[in-house]
Design brief:
five-stranded mixed sheet, Rossmann fold, about 15% strand, about 450 residues, five-stranded parallel sheet
Length: about 450
């Protein structure tokens, strides 16, 4: 099971810049209220918890079919529809495209240069395309789909529909209508599961199966930590404790930036996934905690100076891996060269974990709060635990901050203005807003 050592968040270790047990106990009523809101399912979007018991037969069937019939698997999506699958791919099948088939490509933006280059290296006749949009109307995904559908129709004619799978709402939306009309294979995103909480739905699980990862292991890991994350004792519930510590650091110490530092290359995209989850869920009503993705040991050489001697507005949390599944011994060469000889006989695992602990200690000596999440090893089981842990922690944090962790009104306004600019019916007033904005834009340009 994953675990949290939060010693370096407490005043016993870092002095007055840390928290006390009294700090936590003083907000016991708020913690209890937050716990009950989640345990009692006060938001319907907490349905993501039920994903852990889903039937994966159709996902596995689709995965087998794609593996047999395609050299390339192209995923079209944005936000949680892309970040979750990418986190799974990078964590569990690093350098996948150099070793295995089908190769996996995730197009999660509308940069025309990227798409042009992508299409120059894949043969669409041998490509299977997964279109992911719960609403079915996400502009970026819709545009990508229109382009790829047109190209596939030109190449394959009436057989084009056999090279797509659409992951969307089971009953409504534009993609659902297209899928029904064109008889395209579909997988459902449950109506009450938001995009950034959907990694353990077909959104992420199909990519897992296509890349040879047993999606049931992701769900098993999540299921095994579920009861712990629903414990009503904050000191026995790591997700509730995670949310409480960062909430208190914000309220009592004005530390509102949360830096996630995994010490493993393949967890870099887990940080990206977490950043969307944390930022979009909590940043509203002039409240929120700002996530900041990092990577150890790389960012010891680019950001650690800021963390130790910069503004005291950050909490650093590490992800430490006990077992990398492999190790490499550093050979005893250049024995007479000072600065090299001390490394001989050690291993890369020793070095990376020593670097993590050294960074932890350096921060602690400087009175900078930090804590460590330890993962026994990175496989589908423990990645499933991490996904579910962070999702539950985010829900608890929203409840503590007294914001809805499942909506995104700020994002919706941006979407609506885009619809207006692009001429979508029903958004004419937004088009007028944009036109007025453009008249005044540029006054202070040099």
């Amino acid at each position: 099971m994953i675990s949290i050592d939060y010693s370096n968040m407490m005043e016993e270790y870092i002095g007055s810049k840390g928290l006390s047990n009294l700090s936590i106990n003083n907000i016991s009523p708020q913690i209890e209220k937050a716990y009950k809101m989640i345990a009692n399912r006060e938001w319907k979007q907490l349905e993501f918890i039920d994903l852990l018991s889903q039937d994966t037969a159709e996902i596995k069937k689709a995965g087998r079919y794609i593996k047999k019939s395609a050299d390339n698997f192209l995923l079209l999506g944005i936000g949680g529809s892309a970040l979750g699958p990418r986190a799974i791919l990078e964590a569990l099948s690093p350098f996948h495209n150099l070793k295995k088939r089908p190769r996996v490509f995730i197009y999660d933006n509308v940069d025309p240069r990227t798409l042009k280059n992508l299409l120059s290296i894949i043969d669409l006749k041998k490509t299977f395309i997964n279109v992911i949009s719960k609403s079915g109307s996400t502009a970026e995904t819709a545009a990508s789909f229109l382009i790829l559908w047109d190209k596939m129709k030109r190449i394959l004619g009436k057989d084009a529909s056999k090279r797509f799978v659409i992951t969307t709402d089971p009953e409504k939306g534009s993609l659902r209508k297209i899928a029904n009309d064109e008889k395209i294979l579909t997988l459902p995103v449950p109506p009450n599961v938001g995009g950034r909480y959907s990694v353990l739905s077909p959104v992420g699980l199909l990519t897992a199966e296509v890349t040879g990862i047993d999606c049931n292991e992701l769900l098993r890991g999540a299921s095994d930590i579920k009861s712990i994350c629903l414990n009503n004792d904050v000191y026995k519930n790591p997700a509730l404790l995670f949310a409480t510590l960062l909430f208190l650091m914000d309220k009592e110490k004005n530390r509102h930036i949360n830096v996630m530092v995994p010490y493993m290359d393949s967890l870099k995209f887990l940080s990206e996934w977490f950043c969307q989850l944390w930022a979009e869920s909590l940043g509203k009503e002039n409240k929120g905690l700002t996530p900041y993705p990092s990577l150890g040991t790389t960012d010891q050489h680019s950001q650690l100076q800021l963390w130790i001697e910069g503004p005291p507005d950050k909490v650093i949390f590490f992800i430490r891996v006990d077992d990398f599944g492999t190790d490499i011994k550093i050979p005893a060469v250049f024995k007479n060269i000072e600065g090299y000889n001390y490394l001989s006989g050690h291993t890369l695992k020793e070095l990376i974990n020593s670097e993590q602990e050294a960074t932890e200690l350096a921060l602690t000596k400087a009175g900078r709060p930090n804590f460590t999440i330890t993962v026994p090893q990175i496989n589908a089981y423990y990645l499933g635990q991490l996904f579910f842990f962070f999702e539950m922690a985010t829900a608890f944090a929203g409840a503590l901050l007294e914001v809805n962790p499942f909506d995104q009104p700020g994002v919706e306004e941006g979407k609506n203005l885009t619809y207006g600019m692009m001429g979508k019916k029903g958004f004419e007033e937004k088009k007028k807003e944009v036109d007025e904005y453009r008249k005044n834009k540029g006054k202070w340009r040099i």
